[in-house]
Amino acid sequence: MTDQVDLREAVNAVSDVVQNRPRPLRNFDQIHMKVGDMVMQSEIVADWADGKRLAFIGDGDAISVCVAYLRARDVLNFGPTRITVFDFDERTVQAVKRFADKERIEHLDAHLYNVLDPFPQMPEFDLFYTNPPWGASNAGESVNVFVDRGIEAIKRTGEGMIVIADDDERPWPKVVLANVQRHASRAGFYVSRMQRKLHRYHLDDDPDLLSCNLYISSLPDNAPILTPSEPIATERLTNFYGMDQPPTVRYVREKKRPDYGKAPDEEYFVELFGGE
Ligand SMILES: C[S@@+](CC[C@H](N)C(=O)[O-])C[C@H]1O[C@@H](n2cnc3c(N)ncnc32)[C@H](O)[C@@H]1O
Predict the structure, then answer these.
(1) Using CA positions, which residue lies closest to atom 15 of ligand 1?
(2) How far is the CA of 4 from the centre of ligand 1 (A)?
(3) C-alpha span between 173 and 130 (Å, rounded)
(4) Which helix (H) or strand (E) is 86 found in, with range?
């Protein structure tokens, strides 16, 4: 983080975002990044995307909201000109929209979208960001599905930041990193940068697992995408969310308008003075 950034203001802003964020659903690989790492990551993303239009392909972490809010609060004086989140969880989509509305952040928006479905017709983006399911049980194919939608969002020209596991002690993250890089290369991209072992997560059964920022950039002569977007082929969906967990859910729906900052009634009961 640069010297000019007021760390207290930055952490407090990210804390506001975390209060507004729905709780993670582990069965869809929603595992949230730790707050200190979110502050650092938001500054990295704001710097990388300065003056650009940025699409998030899934964003349970709410890095999108942090990046927009840090700029709106003048904690950062740089950042993207447009931020759009695509996520299949309506709680996430609505949380982004409500926060943007409350804080009057006009360049932040979100759409309900499942990556298995064709990518919607949209004005073009310059960059995409994804922190997808990490593909531990399918050699990174889940990551590649999210990357393909990101590449569609930027119409095969621009850059992507892919946040995935990075760990020297285990075999599977190495296999995933190799396969994602190979897949990006076949799609007309090269690895332009890699920031290794940056982030930790609220992951009870594996608290030491780290992730990296893998940057990919388009080759100069990439052909534009002219054909309509297609659904993802069934054979790519094996073990999508982990071993024997194929994607059967199109959308996670929000039951009622919750206030994420407050404990729900089911979480506690009270004992009154006087024993009643
Ligand atoms: C899979 S999680 C990865 C972990 C990451 N740290 C997080 O919690 O955001 C990333 C996001 O992808 C979204 N997601 C999962 N499956 C999806 C799908 N099929 N289509 C669109 N978004 C999806 C989740 O709702 C979540 O917000």
Answers:
(1) 28
(2) 33
(3) 16
(4) strand 82-87
Helices (H), 103-250: 141-153, 171-186
| CATH 3.40.190.10 at 20-222+233-241+260-267, yes or no | no
Give the end-to-end CA distance of the chain in Å, rounded to a whole number: 54
* CA–CA gap between residue 198 and residue 37 (Å, rounded): 7
- The residue with greater pLDDT, 274 or 163, is 163
Each residue's pLDDT tens digit, 151-197: 999 999 999 999 999 999 999 999 999 999 999 999 999 999 999 99
Helices (H), 31-162: 35-48, 63-72, 90-102, 141-153
Q: Give the separation between CA 61 and CA 69, rounded to whole angstroms.
A: 14
pLDDT of residue 275: 66
- Choose the residue to mutate in 29, 56, 65, 241 for probing ligand 1, maximizing ligand atoms within 8 Å of C-beta: 29
pLDDT of residue 260: 72
Q: Are strands 211-218 and 189-199 parallel, antiparallel or unpaired?
A: antiparallel
Sketch the domain layout of the chain as residue ranges.
20-222+233-241+260-267
pTM for the whole thing? 0.95
